[in-house]
Predict the structure.
Amino acid sequence: MAEYIESLERLSEQFGRLEGVGKKSAMRMAFSVLELSDEEAASFAQSILDAKQKIHLCPVCQNLTDRELCNVCADPGRDGSIICVVNDPRALLAMERVREFRGVYHVLHGLISPMNGVTPDQLKIKELLERIQRGGVEEVIVATDPNVEGEATAMYLSRLLRPLGVKVTRLAYGVPVGADLEYADEITLFRALEGRRNF
Amino acid sequence: MAEYIESLERLSEQFGRLEGVGKKSAMRMAFSVLELSDEEAASFAQSILDAKQKIHLCPVCQNLTDRELCNVCADPGRDGSIICVVNDPRALLAMERVREFRGVYHVLHGLISPMNGVTPDQLKIKELLERIQRGGVEEVIVATDPNVEGEATAMYLSRLLRPLGVKVTRLAYGVPVGADLEYADEITLFRALEGRRNF
């Protein structure tokens, strides 16, 4: 095409690398950046660097945080005896939106998926075991996504954790099967939490 | 929410400012940035600054470019006597994809819209007049969007330009090629019928 503008194409490619962004959306966003003021563009660029630099994993629950401990782990009002296990930080955010769960979390950063070559040792399962072995944990609620990988991971965790003497529960099927936890509405999530069952 | 991470929220807000990006998509993109390597994130940030810094308007046709003249204006093979007027650089890209038009362009950067407070003097119309007054232009094809604002702008341009002795034409209206007639709206069908051609 005659109208190739290198720096615009490069910016568009960068947007295209992000999850869920198609080629047309990426180009639209790149054009959109050109409409920002210089200051706005500079602050956009800086916010990317800031996010990458400041955000790391909470050493306790492996959630994302820009402080020493994440806000949940740092909150003395949360009940450390109940750990809710989620696959990623977005699922954790979804759980927090329910405003009902007063326990703490553990973020696996993935789900077991032999098809995609994801094995248990690539997830933050070792860290979960260590937390439980340090004592004080009574219940682990497995809130992995209600799909095949989520189920497999839940099963794996339940077999692994039961010998340690903790109660292992799973979110009730109130969450729509096959969907991403991230998109579940608060009421569905609340019902799922309320109706959790023993393995 | 307990799980507020300031730098993540700020990054998400930045994505949310871009055209066509909703709140959920913005947050997903922000999370996606965290999955980039440090180098990738740095090059993303840099590409925003680069695009803003390097891209400016072509002094002839007002299209975006990172060179002195845009690629079309700099191409001696293009016919400067036919100017195709488009509302924005994306429309220009769409026209270029046709690979049929060998004339040059003029980008208005907007459409006349009294409802949204956009008046002719806010568009690159003065620059178009100056081009035509410099001579050598025989035809102006008005290819503004086929909607109310596009029509109003086309009408305005046609009244303005005809006294200068240039031919002013408008893109043909009709049914889109490859589409089902069943789904064409009445106005489009009426225009297609009105503009029917002999075989």
